[in-house]
Amino acid sequence: MLLLLLLISLLVSLIMMMMMMMMMMMMMMMMIIIIIIGPPDPPYQLNVVCLTSTRVMLSWKPGFNRGDEQIFYIQYRSLNKKFRRFPQIIEDDGKDNMSKSLTKLQKNRLYQFTVVAVNKFGITLSKEIVNCTTKDSEDFVSPQHPSAGSVVAGALIGSEVLILIILIAVLVYRKRLSLQEIQL
């Protein structure tokens, strides 16, 4: 009888310990959920390139969305003016880098840009502000596409390097053949 009571006591203790562990795990999961859910982390690594006298390209990396889909909007201003919101909303496409072309700016003017991230839990401004002075004329500068001259130069240099590698390989092969003939 004593053995049975001891066994029941041990079983009850084991069940209570398992229940406590389950409660602790549930509390930890709740803490993780509380930490994750909230306003998005701020956008970072902002970069702006003035393309023409009225157009710029702004790029950034989105911060962690903290549990909900996020959208972005751009704020900009010219010197000594209040920030204005660019009217178009940019949806997070899940990529590591986001970008947006802004048009209808005034020529030869210094602008400042920042990005705002929004989800259902709140709004977060980027900690960065980037500057760009629009051009005086309509000359287009593309930061993403190399010029035709640089493509041709790259192709020529690449083909010369390839020919040089093939020539060296042939010379090494011939040298090995001549060494084998000498040994015979």
UniProtKB/TrEMBL annotation:
InterPro entries: FN3_dom, FN3_sf, Ig-like_fold
Pfam families: fn3
Annotated transmembrane regions: 151-173
Family matches, as SMART domains: FN3
Domain Fibronectin type-III stretches: 42-137
Keyword Transmembrane tagged: yes
Keyword Transmembrane helix: yes
Keywords: Membrane, Transmembrane, Transmembrane helix
Protein's UniProt name: Fibronectin type-III domain-containing protein
